[in-house]
Amino acid sequence: MIYDGLRVVDASRGIAGGYCSKLLTDLGADVVKLEPPDGDPLRRYSATGSVGEDGDPDGVLFRYLHTSQRSVIVEDESRLRPWVDAADVVIESFVPGQAEELGIVGIAPVTVSISTFGRGGPDSELSLPEEVLQARSGSLSNHGHMHRPPLTVGGQLGQYVTGAFAALGALTAWWRAGRTGEREHVDVSMLEAMQYTLVTVPTLMARFPGGRTGSFRWVMLPGNEPTGDGKYVGITTVTTQQWRSLLRVIGRDDLDDDEDLRSFLGRFRRAQEVNEAIRGWTMQYTADEVVELCAEGRVPAAVVGNGQLLPTFDQLVERDSFVQQPGASFVRPRAPFRFSAVPDRAMTPAPRLGEHSGDSVPTPRPNGGGTPGAVGERPFTGVTVLDFTAFWSGPFATAWWSAMGADVIKVESAQRPDGIRFSAAVSPKVEPRFYEMSALFHATNLGKRGITLDLGQPDGVAIAKQLIERSDIVCENFTPRVMDSFGLDYDAMRAIRPDVIVLRLPAFGLSGPWRDRPGFAQTMEQITGMAARTGYEGGPPIIPGGFVDPAVGVHAATALVAAFEHRDRTGEGQLVEMPMIEVAAAMTAEQVAEYSAYGRLLGSRGEHGVYRCEGEGEQWVALDLASDPLSADERTAWCAERTPDQAAKELLDAGIPAAAMVPAFMTLDDPQLRARGYFERVEHPLVGEQEYPGWPMRFSAGPDRYWHDPAPTLGQHNAVVLGDELGLDEHELARLREQGVIGDAPLMGR
């Protein structure tokens, strides 16, 4: 195991800290969970209220998160210190300031602090549950139908992704601290994690060319469509080509020339027409038949899953994606990453409360290890990453390496630029270089260098092989057949550079019956039950709308840090396989475990906890129903007499967690985000100065800011990378441009 011998103390409570320690455990760490005499409250939690029904006193979610760990009771918080003294990494989730008072920050080489708002800023000590925090993050304002209340995303996804960011921060800090001997504090903000993942860069979308401010929420069309056998099938058309392919599949080629329907917004405006066309077709078939017909037409589609269906899907069965929980009767997902050079950890049962209290505290490691200053504020400076990824999940993973100092070379082709470039808000009729004005492309490619190579031509493959030879890490996220068809699978890359680390991020995996099916974040949200947990009462499932992409990206970045640690220690490269579906399943494990253990199916959360307030337009407040003694009717009437800010303040003063709904595009002005410097200004030659989201954690050892350089224009660095660095002369570069091997403008259809 990569982190065998890494001592981790988990003094946190709840899902975020638990998921952080789970990921570190999966990677080999020895995790000791410190608990009060009555245990972590998560032991007594079940989403269906079923704790104990399977004969075990602990809930399934606690057992899933704390598998293969140890439990030690500390009678009071002052007893934490001996364990902290002996730890390499400490995870804590106290209210900011409390851990410092207890003297447990700055003791271990790495301390990871998880809190609602992060340290510093006017709201640092305020604690809000995730459902309420969604209102503050902008997520609430972007989900649901405009003619109905805004919709809370179900499933506690913000907690999971916060834990994933905490794990990434922990391992990145450990890379540095383990080599410098200098202690480091990682400060993780749940608000920032949710703002980065549950909404698609809304502040940039509003301010880039063609963008518009204003509250606007919508449900994707096509989306989760009913079928003749009473199920739902999720259909995804991210690109124009996928929409046109869907029209051919459903026999509506007559709509192919309608340019208005080629955009999300156009389909939204004509929702009734689009729904009638699609559902008139899907209702003629079973769900499985719809999926097969879409797959034949290269349209991403999947049966909408839930806790009962998910483990039964052929792809997941063949790949053993679900395993028996050790010491229990329920099934749960396997670890969300697969390393070719390192076996999976052999799991042991989750610990009983205080089961290991008799274990002796390890002897603290001697001080003085490492060389101060040996690793700078950007710890991966000097690393080269060759980035073939596109859209959001892969570029999100490599963006972390860019922020941490690596030279990330983004490879596109003039024939097929990164598809996310074409999500620009400005029309091609208005701006010929619209493909350089996609807010999401910019946000996930800051600081990278961009080149183009047509891998369909021998010269393109030959140059790619030269770049692989010079790269520490190579990343791609196509369907497996794409890189294989170019002769660039892992074995081929390893033959070029034996110690190369290769990250492959297919939708469904490198093997199995769904191997070559296309799939996007929306597809994963449909299959793994995220959609099933989100939606209006009595209505169809609704997807979070892209969350899986950055969530997969942060897991992938974490796995790469682990693989790099392994190579540094052993000299051995490896293949890291991370199917999107298996990462998504790791964050929806509760649904499967609850059904498997208790026979209870988790459904949609509905629109609970959101109330209209006084004022024109979108005036809403979110509150924690568990803390409010009023009835639903009383609460509705009370909120209607107050503005959202007034209602939130009075509720908070009464000890009831609450937040006014903030329109997503306005989160740029959030005083907490401003105080923490979450948004960073970067100048770009075509879109000017913009404020980009940073990362939801702060490192005491730096960097002070993540971004300095803008995202590259298409092929911007061809001359520098291919000419100056690979040695191709002007004549050769000119020939490659003439043949379309390289280019700096799209050559669509060439």
Question: How would you characterize this protein structure?
Answer:
There is one protein chain. The protein has 750 residues and is α/β, with parallel strands linked by helices. The chain has a domain at 608-663. Helix content is 33%, strand content 13%. The chain is built from 27 helices and 24 strands. Strands 3-2-1-4-5-6-24 form a seven-stranded mixed beta sheet. The protein has a seven-stranded mixed beta sheet with strand order 12-18-17-16-13-14-15, with helices on both faces. Strands 7-8-9 form a three-stranded antiparallel beta sheet, sandwiched between helices. Helix 1 packs across helix 6 and helix 5 packs across helix 7 (190-197). It starts with 6 loop residues before the first strand and ends in a 12-residue tail after the last helix. The model has no long low-confidence stretch (mean pLDDT 95).
In a few lines, what is going on in this structure?
The protein contains 27 helices and 24 strands. With 750 residues, the chain is an alpha/beta fold.
- What are the low-pLDDT stretches, counting only 5+ consecutive residues below 50? none
Rg on CA atoms, Å: 25 Å
Number of strands: 24
Average pLDDT number = 95
In one word, what is the shape? globular
Quaternary structure annotation: single chain
Strand ordering within the main sheet: 3-2-1-4-5-6-24
Q: Report the β-strand fraction as a percent range.
A: 5-15%
Quickly give the structural class.
Answer: alpha/beta
**Can you summarize the main beta sheet?**
7 strands, mixed
Helix content: 25-40%
Total helical elements: 27
* End-to-end Cα distance: 47 Å
